[in-house]
Write a structure and sequence with these properties.
The complex is a heterotrimer of chains A (about 800), B (about 190) and C (about 350). Chain A is α/β, with parallel strands linked by helices. Chain A contains 23 helices and 17 strands. In chain B, the strands form two sheets. Chain B has a two-stranded antiparallel sheet with strand order 1-4. A two-stranded antiparallel sheet of chain B has the order 2-3. In chain B, a hairpin with a 7-residue loop joins β2 and β3. Chain B is elongated and about 95 Å long. The chains are: A alpha/beta (about 800), B mainly alpha (about 190), C mainly alpha (about 350).
């Protein structure tokens, strides 16, 4: 030993001396757990982002092969602990206090335990820090002491900060746990090799190995393995929780890790014994982290021991190996009795951070007595190693005063459990702190999210406003242009003979207006506009005086005249644009638009005429309507194919959908009202009425869907009373029959109008009527039978 | 008589002096910045759901600050927000106004994509642009951005949007507070929860 | 198989509230013995009477408040209140005095605030203060002590059980003058003409340290208190604060041994209820400050107030008032004596409001 000056041992405030209960599991040395048939490998065994699987179900993998890669910097890859087949990737039992499942790769072991190719490093000293760190990262090593922070990240947490002290945590202060003790006893050489690797990476000025003085065998073994190296083994008095990273640093150096900071901030790195073993395996043997030493202890086990278990081994397998007496098991704890968490299922696997499985009996770990009120005795604050005021924290946690909790540094609580342990009122203090901490974190997250949502909302508002402004500006620009044009026209070409277009559609005119019209085009245009005006006037007059046959006769003539004028103008335009520039696509669109508008206008006139004609049209009226219909057909034919065919149908469909949705809403409302007032017959009626409307609307919708060329969206109408398949079938049939009937009716009428032979049409009409009646009856019967059910 | 006049004069003088002091203080110590509306807005949950009857959280904040709106109209914020507002404005906390809805666990909208007809109505309704999609294309909700305001549910013509609670995972799981021991009886427990 | 879900720690110590309470009671035993020796059965009658009343009233109120009765009555806190109150009251006090003080202590001092752990004031001292203000004559009539007849022949101590009972329950025709006597603090307070030496010779009640018998009683409480500290039932902070402050105050304002003397530090430390207060009253955790530093400040505050009231106030002894006054300040003390948390440069002190 070359320890020149003895290391000063500092004391930590507080702390307790619970019964150690360590001897039970140290008697049998270090055993190797049998190879399990199935391994569950959770993708989240570390702090940070969940690992990303790189294998798929059915793949055969070899021992040590990469199963999932690190997802980001603070993450950890995962390797196959044995050879076998990936049988599932998905939620699986997970060792967590919540008992919830977590994504995992399930591996069926093939029993061969066949290694993949390994790349051991014979002389790590020949390598720089960076490649060594990378190897540690790729080996999937995260802290094996409990927190599971990815080791490579931890070593390199503060790249700019010189690390002067490397502290090795061999404290293991929790009762029952002897995993690190066992590792030091039987694997001291490997541990020291791991220390050497870290030393090579970090070049610290001193290396301190802190071990509690209740592990004399471990201390002796480590001393022997260290030999003449400049590594100091520092035994210090046993006290819980001296194994906490911050506490150990305080004991060995007297310094405190700043709140919210890392040991690296004060030039220190602290590593656990198990982690060092893993580093040794990763560098010297080239093996990724696929196994760990775990303590199996507790009075429910007949053979408490320490085992080298593969990561992913189901807990049940390990406990059975240690002689579990299921009837005696009361509380199953992963970790120690002070900081471990209970497991509700033995199906969960051992993961990288599982240092102990404590299978306690009822007598060993009895439920705590009912909590009494806090009498502020202060024993907790005397026991607190973080120098907090647990009784005050408890008080504020009860009142959920999160600001006060933060002020009293709740987040410096290491949840060691000393306060709960000493509390004479047996108040579950740690649980209060955990609940408050997660509540505060959730609130902060929520606050953060609210802020984020606010920003998104405001950005959206701005965007909408911008759009509205843009629209407004465009509209204004168009109006200005039109006004200018009109002014120019009035100033330049106004002649008393040519009636100026009184109120042309400004938008249309501007949209339509090509950049420069030559004189001929202008002439043509004016002619077309005049013709249009005349036509419109005539139509108006016809609408006003439906009985004036003369007027009506004029309309088609005017129409014809206008169309010709327009066509001439169009033709000249087309020539011009072909001549001048390649036709802009916008122009084509505009053309379509224009045609559409025309068609729509014609349709409107037709409707108007039809309305005027009423149920008993005069001969003239019928003629007129017929003519209009013809025109509509012509206009629609001129529309580009797909719009003409589809658009109106789509419109119908949309309208039908909207009607259906409205009817549904109305029905819901009525039903709600009725639910409040069950006995009101008026409401009952209202509901019935709404239901009828809805049925009707649904029919129309179905019909519209049947008519449309659009693929019918697959969907299931979710309703208060979902329509069953049979009803739907019948309803569809009915709708179809109705449609067929209507069509027949139409052709019949047309035949009549055309004074053609109505015989065939009449027969068709009768046939469809029959079919409609049958369908309606079938539906009614079906509904009736359903009601009686 | 002289005494009365003196008294009046003295009081008048005092009134003038104090008035001047107060007037000066009002100018000198005028509180600038961070207007109350922003402070109130910061407390609101920013779901922009409109359940309060205002088109968004900020308008409600303005309503509270300027229009004397009651502080209990925000169901997504629930008791916590009411308490925070009560603290901020130094008024008595009120129970949540049930007329505007009930406090529910935080929800997230899910679109049953097979049923979506791509109408973009929900996209237009979403106050935080959390729905992705285009006309005739399936829409989907960006879960992380969704505030659970359920404004997209109503406009959907085919009812394919569900409001579902966020699933609990080991990552967001929370420890419960210990059950009250024998200290508390039912009435106390309620008070404690408030 | 149903495995339980429980929060850590899964192991816990065997410390219980009852244990703590019973230790406090046990630690008063030397003092109880001393008082019984000097004053006869009056002290024991006080204790029994107060215990019965407090437990009964506690059970009654718990029942009214719909709380589990046996769970709370057995926690021992009411018993401690009863004992401390009984020891503070003069022996041979009339029974109704004890009943009033004990009921008030439990009802108004404890249960109305929400029971154990919720009371801002020390219940025993609250009960004591109420009867002290309401019944000054009874409260300042301390029983004569064993051996008084040797120096003052007209007064004799009531040492027998039957006599004591008769006295307490009002069947005795004996006038107060016949069995009661002033305490040394009382005498010193009302003294105007005599020097300390003259007082000591004329009044046999004065002893070598404080009062003749009082010094023994205080020594007995001191022994009990040291036991509590040794057993870590109470921390040393508050008692040390109080005794140190009292000693310093009495040293500063000693005023020599003339007729205007306020008494020596030794006199103050070993007179009246000093030691009872320092180890059993001030250390009441519920109404005391929380942190270690806070407890020192709290104790010191009590010490200063005790001296101020004794020297310049209207009452001969002052532990009750001093403690109650300091109870008022305990929350504030807590806010300003928060310890520095691990990893923080300095402690977070103050009210924690950012207005």
């Amino acid at each position: 030993m070359t320890q020149a000056t003895p290391i000063k041992i500092w004391d930590i405030p507080g702390g307790i001396h619970p019964p150690e209960n360590k001897h039970q599991s140290t008697a049998n040395g270090l055993e190797v757990a049998p190879l399990p048939a199935r391994l569950i490998l959770p993708l989240q065994q570390h702090i940070g982002a969940r690992a990303e699987p790189v294998v798929s179900v059915g793949d055969r993998v070899l021992k040590g092969q990469l199963l999932a890669e690190a997802n980001g910097l603070v993450s950890c890859p995962l390797h196959a602990p044995t050879s076998g087949t990936v049988s599932a990737i998905g939620p699986a039992p997970y060792p967590h206090a919540s008992g919830l499942e977590e994504w995992a790769i399930t591996l069926e072991s093939d029993g061969q335990d066949e290694w993949t190719d390994l790349e051991p490093i014979s002389d790590f000293r020949a390598l720089e820090s960076a490649p060594l760190l990378e190897m540690i990262r790729l080996a999937g090593i995260s802290g094996l002491g409990g927190a599971g922070f990815p080791t490579a990240v931890k070593i390199n947490a503060r790249p700019e900060q010189k690390i002067h002290s490397l502290i090795i945590n061999g404290t293991e202060c929790e009762p029952y746990i002897t995993a690190d003790d066992t590792a030091m006893r039987y694997k001291a050489t490997e541990i020291v090799a791991g220390i050497e690797i870290l030393r090579h990476i970090l070049h610290p000025e001193e290396v301190l190995v802190g071990i509690e003085d209740n592990k004399s065998e471990a201390i002796a073994a480590m001393r022997e393995a260290v030999g003449e190296r400049d590594i100091r083994i520092v035994p210090f008095p046993t006290k819980y929780p001296s194994g906490g990273e911050k506490q150990l640093i305080q004991i060995l150096t007297g310094k405190e890790v700043p709140s919210g900071g890392l040991p690296a901030d004060i030039g220190m790195v602290c590593q656990n014994i198990g982690t060092l073993l893993a580093i040794h395996d990763a560098i010297i043997l080239g093996q990724p982290l696929i196994k760990r030493i775990t303590t199996l202890t507790g009075e429910a086990l007949t053979h408490p021991t320490n085992v080298e278990a593969l990561i992913g081994t189901p807990i049940r397998d390990l406990l059975e190996f240690a002689g579990l007496q299921p009837d005696r098991l009361y509380r199953l704890v992963m970790g120690g009795p002070m900081m471990g968490f209970t497991l509700q299922s033995m199906d969960a696997p051992v993961i990288k951070t599982s240092n102990c499985l404590l299978a306690g009996t009822l007598e060993e770990l009895p439920p705590p007595p009912v909590a009494q009120p806090c009498i502020r005795c202060g024993l907790c604050s005397e026991a607190c190693p973080a120098m907090l005021l647990p009784q005050q924290l408890h008080w504020f946690a009860l009142g959920k005063e999160y600001d006060q909790l933060k002020r009293l540094n709740l987040f410096d609580c290491i949840e060691c459990g000393c306060c709960s342990y000493v509390c004479p009122s047996s108040i579950p203090l740690v649980q209060y702190y955990r609940a408050s901490k997660s509540e505060i974190r959730a609130l902060e997250l929520q606050q953060h999210k609210a802020e984020h949502s606010k920003q998104r909302f405001e950005q959206r508002q701005q965007r909408l406003q911008r759009e509205a402004e843009q629209k407004e500006a465009d509209r204004k620009a168009r109006a200005d242009k039109a006004a200018r044009m009109k002014a120019a026209k009035e100033a330049g070409t106004a002649s008393p003979d040519t009636p100026a277009p009184a109120e042309p559609d400004v938008a249309r005119v501007t949209a339509q207006k090509p950049a420069g019209l030559n004189a001929e085009q202008k002439q043509l245009k004016i002619a077309a506009a005049t013709a249009q005006m005349a036509l419109k006037k005539a139509q108006k007059q016809v609408a006003a005086n439906p009985d004036n046959a003369e007027l009506k006769a004029q309309v088609p003539v005017l129409e014809q005249a206008w169309r010709e004028a327009q066509q001439r103008f169009d033709a000249s335009l087309g020539e011009a644009s072909v001549k001048a520039t390649p036709a802009p696509s916008a122009g084509a669109d505009d053309e379509t638009k224009r045609l559409k508008i025309e068609a729509a206008m014609l349709r409107a006139s037709l409707k108007k005429a039809e309305r005027a004609a009423g149920d008993t049209p005069t001969e003239e009226q019928e003629k007129e309507i017929y003519a209009l219909r013809e025109q509509v057909a012509v206009a629609e034919a001129r529309l580009p194919k797909e719009t003409a065919a589809k658009k109106p149908v789509d419109e119908n469909l949309k309208k039908a959908k909207l009607d259906a949705a409205m009817a549904k809403a109305a029905l819901k409302k009525a039903e709600r009202a009725q639910a409040d007032n069950m006995d009101d017959p008026a409401l009952q009626e209202e509901v019935e009425r709404c239901r009828d409307i809805l049925t009707e609307a649904l029919h129309t919708l179905e019909q519209a869907e049947a008519n449309t060329s659009q693929p019918v969206p697959e969907r299931e109408r979710v309703d208060k009373k979902p329509i069953d398949e049979a009803t739907r079938q019948r309803k569809t049939e009915l709708a179809m029959a109705k449609a067929a009937y209507k069509k027949a009716e139409q052709s019949f009428k047309q035949a009549q109008e055309a004074n053609a032979d109505t015989g065939a049409a009449q027969a068709e009409l009768d046939r469809t009527k029959e079919a409609l009646n049958t369908a309606a009856k079938a539906l009614a019967e079906h509904m009736a039978s359903k009601e009686t059910d | 008589m002289g005494i009365v006049v003196t008294a009046i004069l003295v009081l008048l003088g005092l009134a003038l002096i104090f008035g001047a002091i107060l007037g000066y203080a009002a100018i000198r110590f005028k509180v600038e910045g961070d207007p109350i509306v922003d402070q109130i807005n910061a407390v609101l949950p920013q779901t922009q759901c409109g359940q309060c009857g205002h088109p968004g959280c900020k308008p409600y904040a303005e309503g509270i600050a300027n229009g004397g709106e009651p502080i209990n109209k925000c169901p997504p914020g629930g008791e916590a927000t009411i308490q925070a507002l009560a603290d901020l404005l130094d008024v008595e906390p009120l129970p949540l106004d049930a007329e505007h809805g009930e406090e529910k666990p935080r929800m997230v909208a899910y679109i049953r994509e097979a049923e979506c007809i791509g109408c973009t109505k929900c996209i237009q309704a979403c106050p935080v642009d959390a729905i992705l999609g285009a006309a005739k294309q399936m829409h989907t909700v960006i879960v992380d951005e969704c505030t659970g305001c359920d404004l997209c549910v109503e406009p959907c013509p085919v009812d394919c949007i569900d409001m579902l609670p966020l699933p609990t995972t080991p990552q967001n799981w929370k420890w419960d507070y210990p059950l009250p021991g024998k200290t508390l009886i039912a009435t106390d427990a309620q008070r404690g929860a408030a | 198989m149903a495995l339980v879900r429980m929060t850590s720690p899964h192991a816990r110590g065997n410390n219980r509230t009852q244990t703590i309470m019973l230790w406090v009671v046990a630690a008063t035993l030397p003092g109880v013995l001393a008082m019984t020796w000097f004053f006869g059965f009056g002290t024991l009658i006080n204790i029994i009477l107060a215990s019965v009343v407090t437990l009964g009233v506690e059970a009654l109120i718990l029942r009214l408040r719909k709380r589990p009765v046996s769970f709370f009555v057995t926690d021992g806190s009411a018993l401690v209140t009863a004992w401390l109150l009984a020891l503070a009251l003069p022996p041979l006090s009339p029974w109704w005095l004890v009943v009033i003080a004990a009921s008030f202590a439990i009802v108004f001092g404890k249960q109305l605030y929400g029971g154990l752990g919720q009371n801002p004031f020390n219940p025993a001292m609250l009960g004591y203060a109420v009867v002290l203000i309401s019944f000054p004559v009874e409260m300042t009539s301390w029983a004569a002590w064993r051996g008084i007849e040797q120096s003052i022949p007209d007064v004799s101590a009531t040492l027998g059980l039957l006599d004591a009972l008769r006295q307490v329950f009002g069947f005795s025709a004996q006038a107060i003058d016949g069995w009661a006597h002033a305490t040394p603090l009382d005498i010193l307070k009302t003294n105007s003409g005599l020097t300390i030496n003259e007082l000591a010779t004329s009044q046999p009640v004065f002893g070598t340290l404080g009062g003749n018998i009082w010094e023994w009683i205080n020594l007995a409480y001191l022994a009990g208190g040291l036991l509590l500290i040794y057993k870590r039932i109470v921390s040393w902070h508050a008692p040390l604060g109080m005794l140190a402050a009292l000693a310093i105050m009495s040293l500063l304002f000693w005023g020599g041994s003339g007729s205007d003397s306020n008494g020596s530090p030794m006199f103050h430390l070993f007179s009246g209820a000093t030691m009872l207060g320092a180890f059993f009253i001030v250390t009441d955790p519920v109404s005391c400050a929380t942190s270690k530093l806070g407890r020192i400040v709290f104790g010191a505050g009590v010490g200063v107030l005790v001296y101020v009231i004794r020297a310049w106030g209207g009452y001969p002894d002052a532990v009750a008032f001093a403690v109650l006054l300091m109870n008022l300040t305990a929350p504030t003390i807590d806010y300003y004596t928060t310890p520095r948390t691990y990893g923080h440069r300095k402690a977070e002190r103050g009210m924690g409001k950012v207005d």
